[in-house]
Task: structure prediction
Amino acid sequence: MSEDIKHIAVSGNIGAGKTTLSEMLGKQFDWEVHYEDANSNPYLSDFYENMNRWSFNLQVYFLNSRYRQILDIQKGKKVIIQDRTIYEDANIFAPNLHEMGLMDERDFKNYKTLFDIMTSQIKPPDLLIYLKASIPTLVGHIQKRGRDYEGSISLDYLKRLNTKYNEWIDSYKIGKLLIIDGDKTDFLNNKEDFGDIVQQINAELYGLF
Result:
């Protein structure tokens, strides 16, 4: 069983702690971490300044980036832990932008067609880890890391994303799923909390308790 495992993914809203958890699990299990391509994304800061103008460009860039990541994972020999998934783009971020009137119908349909073609050619993660967190927890994390381009994110935007995340996770049926309560779990500062997560992952992947 363990020889077949190649792809672990960590999902969650902006500020949930995905990158931190991915790095910690990468060290713990000797997995290679594939990061979300946020810092090198040429559209991100423009998007937060003018969402209407740049939403389609941003989402296509993320889609392209994550699709290439998954192709590399499936061709490679290593176990990869991925910070955010291709499914979040299409089930959460793009529909949310469309509903908010920030991506028009034409662009949204074009985007969804691209996503459907791409996902028909890839396998879902062997395990999806969802970091669930309330708005106060997300805001606290966002403020602590102090990224300039995240300063203009509204509470309404975060709430909308959280609603979409919960709907997506409730209907997630394509693979194994582990939900971690980010409000009650301090995996960064509490070794026992992190140990519990490691134990749950072992149980899901390898049947070890």
User: Anything to note?
Assistant: The CA atoms of residues 92 and 164 lie 5 Å apart. The chain has a mean pLDDT of 91. Residues 51-75 form the longest helix (25 residues). Helices lie at 18-29, 44-49, 51-75, 86-99, 105-119, 135-145, 155-170, 191-206.
